[in-house]
């Protein structure tokens, strides 16, 4: 194994960024001017987009937490890969707000899917960086050897980007499908967490 520092500082910093991302997203929600329940109708697309984005951020936080806890440590490459992931995740509030205001527009829908695609690519880069830290023959590397859900998700994001130009509804359904796929957490790394923390 190469030089590796503890993951605690990286986890704490990342958790703070995740919290800020969620905070920014909720601050983008604007209450309706009316006071009756019917006035909420205009806000429903923004609320729905926020809910989907919130679930995605929660999924990334959950899996990011497990992956860092299962790793023996991080090195400089992994730290930069983590910053790359946080950069793309930090664009989620922007794409969420734009799509929430324009739920059936092609541009916002395609961008929304593209941001999630880049989140997935950045997460895969971080996985590779952490595998290098732990070693190619480590239990960590073996646990991440087959990333079927990750690869399928990125393929679906590409399809969702293309679909946005023909049917934004189809693109939305594909994006929600990815969220459903990941709603059950990735448990491949859980057995390693207790081992590394002893």
Descriptive report:
Helix 5 packs antiparallel against helix 7 and helix 5 packs parallel to helix 8. The protein has one domain. It is globular, with a radius of gyration of 18 Å. By secondary structure, it is an all-alpha fold. About 75% of the residues lie in helices and about 0% in strands. The chain contains nine helices and no strands.
Compact overview of the structure:
The protein contains 9 helices and no strands.
* Structural class by sheet pairing and helices: mainly alpha
Percent strand: under 5%
Cα separation of the termini: 18 Å
Rg value? 18 Å
How many structural domains in the coordinates?
Answer: 1
Largest sheet entry:
none
What's the shape? Answer: globular
Helix content: over 70%
Treating each run of at least 4 consecutive H or I residues as one helix, how many helices?
9
Q: SSE order in H/E notation?
A: HHHHHHHHH
Low-confidence stretches: none
Average pLDDT rating: 88
Instruction: Count the E strands.
Output: 0
């Amino acid at each position: 194994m190469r030089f590796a520092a503890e993951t605690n500082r990286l986890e704490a910093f990342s958790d703070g960024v995740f919290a800020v991302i969620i905070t920014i997203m909720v601050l983008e929600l604007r209450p309706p001017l009316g006071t009756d329940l019917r006035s909420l109708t205009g806000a429903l697309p923004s609320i729905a987009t926020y809910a989907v984005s919130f679930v995605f951020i929660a999924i990334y936080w959950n899996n990011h937490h497990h992956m860092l806890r299962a790793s023996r440590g991080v090195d400089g490459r992994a730290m930069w890969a983590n910053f790359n992931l946080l950069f793309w995740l930090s664009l989620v509030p922007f794409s969420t707000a734009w799509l929430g205001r324009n739920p059936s527009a092609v541009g916002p829908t395609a961008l929304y899917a593209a941001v999630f695609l880049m989140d997935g690519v950045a997460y895969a880069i971080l996985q590779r960086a952490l595998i290098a830290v732990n070693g190619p023959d480590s239990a960590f590397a073996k646990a991440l050897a087959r990333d079927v859900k990750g690869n399928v998700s990125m393929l679906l994001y590409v399809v969702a980007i293309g679909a946005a130009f023909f049917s934004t509804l189809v693109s939305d359904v594909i994006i929600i499908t990815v969220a459903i796929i990941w709603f059950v957490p990735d448990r491949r790394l859980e057995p390693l967490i207790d081992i590394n923390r002893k």
